[in-house]
Amino acid sequence: MKIQRLALIGCGLMGGSFALALRKAGLVQTIAGFSASEKTRQRALELKVIDQACTSVAEAVQGADLVLLAVPVGAMPSSFAAMRDVLAPSALLMDVGSTKCDVIAAALATLGDRLSCFVPAHPIAGKEVAGIEHAEATLYTERRTILTPLPKTGIRKMQAAHDVWMAIGSHVSNMTPEAHDATFAAVSHLPHMLAFAAVNALTAQTQGAAFLEMAGPGFRDFSRIAASDASVWRDILSANHAEVLTQVAHFRAALDQFETALKQGDTAALQHLIQQASDVRSAWTLQAGNACNKASED
Fold it and tell me: Which of 93, 144, 188, 280 could in theory staple to 298 by disulfide, Cβ–Cβ 3.0 to 4.6 A?
């Protein structure tokens, strides 16, 4: 497998890491990059993440045999529309979005006869910090990447997508878009929202700043993902709001059980609830294809 031209649409952490990984593996000849910010494009050049800084999506995609769309999910519809007329029929187009149903809907509405080029993807990797400066070639190593093919996705395109992610160290799985969004609402999207809410609840209190000064490793670990990029997570939560709200209801029911036990002074019930969660967490193992979750921004 040799990629003559990679078009990187979105020169940030995820896209930059993908480009660096392909370069490290010796699988790509030329990397053309586009970001809306000229400063970001130039920084990607300086860091040798890309070889050519393009001023439009179309310029980057022209002549590319692989296109990676690594922009916030809210920016994907306009990106699809901008590349449609220059995307080669033989090209492989993938995204790295954390939601899939909305991204696929945007592709269906805009890509026209180039829809068969598209293999939706979600690498379960990342950091709580964003930006091209944090990109690294090993970001996807031993992490899971999920593909959610469309009915029109051909076997060759699917195999090519699988091969690309495998080549940079990922473990590849397939899911339906609906199953993907339901799953990640539970294990990623809701946890991020809870972390945001917990930090806001703390700092909204009169003594919040003083409380925060006393916080230790437990709070640090719990709240780590609250430092995630606000615009990225605004788009994710908005796009997958129905599934996230379903998970909110489940969480509220579980929290109610703890609240009831505390109000009633029922220490046995309280211990049971804690033990139940502790047993599940202790039994949960990070297998080779699952290891992505340990440091994932999702």
Answer: 188
Q: What would the mean pLDDT of 169-191 be, rounded to a whole number?
A: 97
Contact (Cβ atoms closer than 8 angstroms) between residue 100 and residue 180? yes
Q: Closest Cα to residue 149, out of 173, 114, 170?
A: 173
**Residue 114 corresponds to which amino acid?**
R
Predicted pLDDT of residue 298: 45
DSSP annotation of 92 = E
Confidence of residue 285 (pLDDT cuts 50, 70, 90): low
Q: What is the pLDDT of residue 67?
A: 98
CA pseudo-torsion sign 17, 21, 23, 24: positive
Length of the chain: 298
Q: From CA 169, how far away is CA 127, in angstroms rounded?
A: 17
DSSP secondary structure of 169-219: TPEEEE--HHHHHHHHIIIIIHHHHHHHHHHHHHHTSTTHHHHHHT--HHH
Q: How many CB atoms lie within 10 A of CB 104?
A: 20
Mean pLDDT confidence for 171-200: 97
164: three-class secondary structure by DSSP: helix
Amino acid at 240: N
CA–CA distances in Å: residue 128 to residues 14, 64, 283, 290: 12, 30, 26, 19
